[in-house]
Amino acid sequence: MKTYRIAAIPADGIGPEVIAAGLQALETLAARDGSFRIDVTTFDWSSDRYKRTGALMPDDGPEQLKAFDAIFFGAVGAPDVPDHVTLWGLRLPICQGFDQYANVRPTRILPGISSPLAGIGPGDLDWVIVRENSEGEYSGNGGRTHRGMPEEVGTEVAIFTRVGVTRIMRYAFRLAQSRARKLLTVVTKSNAQRFGLVMWDEIAAEVAREFPDVTWDKMLVDAMTVRMVKNPKSLDTIVATNLHADILSDLAGALAGSLGVAPTANIDPERRYPSMFEPIHGSAFDIAGKGIANPVATFWTAAQMLEHLGEQAAAARLMRAVEKVCADGILTPDVGGTATTRDVTDAVCDAIRGSNV
Ligand code: NAD
Ligand code: MN
Can you give the residue ranges of the Isopropylmalate dehydrogenase-like domain (predicted)? Predict the structure, then answer.
């Protein structure tokens, strides 16, 4: 029997609540399927650890993760630790250290969940946003001089490389090609940002020649927000820079009903290192500890993880179970219901065990 070694990093706020739910669903799937096992090691890397020891994870943290088949991540961020400290202390070193350059964010309106867009329901909005995840605006380059003085200057330097842009573009075209509509929208801001993002447009046109069966178009990111709201059916696969796709995918999550249903996979397509799977949302201090965090995003990303591991049947079963439970109206308050995290999790696990999904 195959055994997958999973590193769980629940971290902060609702992270531990949704990761516990996700692990319960994975264990239930493994038991039902009978052809694979998951072997979970949980790490306490978090803002609490930072407050205790001065570091979110140990120096050799990434080294420890190398031995795993996948990383299952909750959310990081605490009210009393600056967000750039938590982000750069845990999540980004893993994404960048393991060269997880493709961040894949599917968005669909699940049955039973309503979109804030009038007249748009399940089937009308089915997107995958591909986010460049290794460079661009989040490459960590920049600096500050004359700190605190009137002359102070801060720079935030975005870096785009031909290698980096070409590989994400190929990933996005290949993904678009694998989907029914074979449609890709390439997002930039190449009117105002005339160096790296003009290069981005040029590389898109070059890579497009390798995929003659994919229909593609270009959008400026500001106009893209309008198109997502006004004409969601016109979109399918979307590729954008690290910053632009970060913003667009929060909007996409909201249009699909809630951030609580939006998953993401940080993939190393070359499989040199473990990939990392997480809900898009953060640690949600406002609801942490109340038992009402929506676990659906975490179930969905668990399905992405199973797919990445080659367990397509289990991934599909998990998504069918989630869709059934949503359609049955077992929903947390963020999507208009009264169910708790536990209610939704138990219902999903029952559906997995049942013969109906
Ligand atoms: P957030 O995603 O934590 O919360 C935004 C809003 O969405 C809140 O009202 C929250 O209650 C709601 N929400 C989010 N997930 C939900 C879920 N599963 N179920 C129900 N409601 C949900 O974003 P924020 O409030 O801007 O940030 C809080 C902290 O999380 C900050 O420290 C931030 O830096 C961090 N953060 C971390 C990540 C990450 O770890 N990948 C991502 C985003 C934000
Ligand atoms: Mn984000």
Answer: 5-348
Q: What is the pLDDT of residues 17-43, one digit of tens each?
A: 999 999 999 999 999 989 899 999 999
Query: Residue 37 — left, alpha, or beta (φ > 0 → left; ψ -120 to 50 → alpha)?
Result: beta
Residue 131's pLDDT band (cuts 50, 70, 90): very high
Does the structure show a pLDDT above 80 at 357? no
Which ligand 1 atom is nearest residue 281's CA? 2
Nearest-atom number in ligand 1 for the CA of 76 is 40
Give the ligand with the smallest distance to the CA of 22: 1
Ligand closest in space to the Cα of 252 = 2
Burial track 88-123 (b if 16+ CB lie within 10 A, e otherwise): ebbbbbbbbebbbbbbbbbbbbbbbbebebeebebe
Percentage of residues in the chain having pLDDT higher than 90: 96
> What is the CATH code for 1-100+269-356?
3.40.718.10
Classify domain 115-256 by CATH number. Answer: 3.40.718.10
CA–CA distance, 184 with 215 (Å, rounded to integer): 6
The residue nearest atom 26 of ligand 1, judged by CA position, is 282
Task: Compute the distance from residue 145 Cα to the ligand 1 centre, in Å.
Answer: 32
Query: For residue 145, what pLDDT is reported?
Result: 97
pLDDT of residue 355: 67
> What residues does ligand 1 touch, defined as CB less than 6 Å away?
14, 18, 75-77, 83, 91, 259-260, 278, 281-287, 293-294, 297, 332, 334
| Domain spans, the chain | 1-100+269-356, 115-256
